[in-house]
Amino acid sequence: MFNLKKIKQNAPAVPILVWTGILVGIPLIYVVVLSFLSRDSLGNIVFEFTWENYKRIFDPVYLKVFYNSFLLAVLTGLITLLIGYPVAYFTANLEANRRSLAMGLIILPFWISSLLRVYGWIILLGNNGLINSLLLKFKIIDKPLTMMYNFGTVLVGTAYMLIPFMIVALYNSIDKLDRSLLEASYDLGASKWKTFFKITLPLTMPGIAGGFTLVFIPALGLFFISDLLGGGKNIFLGNLINAQIKGRNRPLAAAFSVGMIILVLLVLYIYTRITKNKKEGLFL
Amino acid sequence: MKAKPQRLRTFYLSLFFVLLYIPVLAVILYSFNQSPSTAQWTGFTLDWYRQLFRDRVIAEVFKISIVVAISTSILSALLGTAAAITTLQVTEGMEKKINTVMLLPLLVPEVALGVSLLLFFSALKLPFGYLTLILSHTLFCTPYVYIMVQLRLKEIDISVIEAAKDLGAGRWQIIKTIILPLVAPSILTASLLAVAISLDDVVISTYMAGPTSTTLPVHIFSMMRVGVTPKVNALCTLILVGTFFIIGFSQFISKKSKQREEFN
Amino acid sequence: MISTKIKKILVLTFCAVFFVFAFVGCGGKDNGNKQINLMTWGGDFIPREIINQFEEETGIKVNYKEVTSNEEMQSLLEANPDQYDLAVVTDYMVDILRQNGYLEKLDKGKIPNFANINPVYQGNYYDENDEYSIPYAVSISFLLVNPEGVAALGADPITSYKDLWQEELKDSIVLIDWSVEVIGLVLKSLGYEYNETDPVKVAEAKEKLFELKDNIVRFETNTPEDSLISGEAVAGFMYSNQAVKGQAADPKLQPVFPEEGMPIYIDCFVMSKDAPNKDNAYQFLNFLLEPEISAKISELTNFSNANKAAEEFLPEDFKNNPMLNFPDEVIKNTSFYIGVAEVYEEYEHIYSEFKMQF
Fold first, then answer.
1. Which residue has the higher pLDDT, C200 or C19?
2. Which residues contact B52 (CB under 8 A, 6 or more apart)?
3. C309 and C213 assigned to the same domain
4. Is the complex ipTM more than 0.90?
5. Is the Cβ of A15 closer than 8 Å to some Cβ of chain C?
6. What are the domain boundaries of chain A?
7. Cα–Cα distance between A40 and A46 in angstroms, integer?
8. Of B190, B189, B69, residue with least CA distance to B134
């Protein structure tokens, strides 16, 4: 049965759904279909249905890579949240004319090439990088510290790369808080911390969820940070997908991608289940 | 009583900004390095800046990237804001649908997006170049604007809107006087992010750029085979310095109007 | 009534979109027929200096589209074969494009300078009869070693792949980051061929690979020479152009051409079957094969030259540098990676498992 009122109510949403839906829906279908196909010795797609690609990724080694990527993405989300929340909070409490300046200055470094920003970290942390040179000069150490090429540096690099998304999301959520609520809380004798945990934090949950989503998803797929800062010794989903594309095995790359997409959906689903509060769940 | 938290705030924000800008300063420092390799510091030089100003290719790709980034940022700000405002009106089921669709561009791997858009736009016979670059960049930048604007629109006081309606305000009037002022800061920050995302996209831009156009990030990444030189550091240094000037200038301009806002 | 204002916004948005459409629609004008669309890696892979000279001499504009990989070039060329004239791709991609039917058979009559090409680089697996491709840049992979560093660690001098396994070289080796290359190196050290499919030999190589784990400080494809310059590694397996850069930055670094054999790569010019500006493209190819031009290119790019006639124009230090002008016995000891597709999934799996050990 057609509900005319409902159709009319929903009509304005149609253009945006069609625009994004078609342009992203096609690639998505392409990836899913591709993941069930095989390829010939030249790397051309062969239109023959197969489960082979999925059988390949259900392998202890590759599942471990899935786990590592998941870990990296979650830790990146947590680190950016822990560092970013106070930044967003304090920024939102600045005077009005300083707020947008601060936000501008936070986003500005991300206008320069990500490759160079990663090289910036190598210049800092490398064996004869700036930090080691300074420490050696002041005789604090007598031989260079090895700080590069491990999970930790990959984590630092990934968090650095994605933190603006977290901060901007949190800022937008904190900045619009009704300050009279906080005042009321103080007037009722609640301490600063209590007010924060009872009022500010719950009210900014959507911002936390949004920021986490915007950090978690890209963190799963990044690959050149682990190549450069991890010395290629840590592999993540992005690296596996990239390697299969380089070997022109696109169906297997597609299967890995589908696995990654399912992982994201799973996390978002669990998240909505846990919070059960529709207002807090951003998606699904 | 009030001084202590402010001191904490100043201390934390300063520390954060120092950490945020240290890698950037390293990039700037090495634009003055004689050696083309970041592995060693061999002495101070301005050679890379000289080379940069002589390089007509880098000027060309920079121009393309700036045009694409700014157009993308404007378009995605319009689309993302429109989509977010639309959710105030539609049914809950429809809102969920929009939320999911807006998440998709983040989920689909870049290569898949690039290759399928390449085939799709080829089939449509669109000319590859600015058009395809801006369309595709807008596609993956819009969700960011949407999410940021949504965050501010959430828990908007519906009673205010209802009251405005009762007083005979039209839809456009409500949007203009109540909603837009509320979400303006998120539109601004999201647009700045959109510029950053657009200026950093390599994979999709490679497929979307035509035979006669290359964007700056593609130019930089495609140099890796032969070697990325500090000329690129020099360019990024100039971009940063230039933007600082623009920010400072706009800050100066907007100071008075902002101050007036404070009084209200 | 409800949606009229929303409609207004949408109308405005679409106006903006169409404005952009209109504004960019007229941007892509061609300047007649005097142009070529070229696609390959960026930077100075084909030096701009040379391109400028060609443009000045002929009045033909060269549109240089920069990409980051062979696979991207394949997708772009196969999607729009009528938009590109020339591309420079690596040997295996010549083979793929040729078999898929996207390449034009070159008319040698229009490239008189084709005769300059060294026969050593002709008739290879990807183009047995030299119908579709013109070799442009030749590179091989070998070891770049810091002999002082090796001695300081108390290890024996490195002369072959086998020496990389010495215990003293802990955390001191950098390798190109690709499964086929790394496993290829191990296979060669065992005296086998590249892309071995025999499960027994592959299993043996896997075991041997795992023994190398402690010695690797880093895997790096784009700037492995940096690890030797900075001193974090004393030996590295890398491409010749990178080794040249490494030695230029630190003269004590020396090449070692392992006796077990080395991989070779030849990047070749190919022409799209539906190339819109074929005659201009031939003119460009012929120009690049001029001995003097060709010599200049090698000098600028650090890639070895496939042009026999160019040799006399090469500077002395280029000719005497074994990393740029490969000695005959080195060339004889090289081979291509053939049949990657057959072994790829298996090698990638081994390689991933290997990396999970770190």
1. C200
2. B58, B231, B234, B235, B238
3. no
4. no
5. yes
6. 60-275
7. 6
8. B69
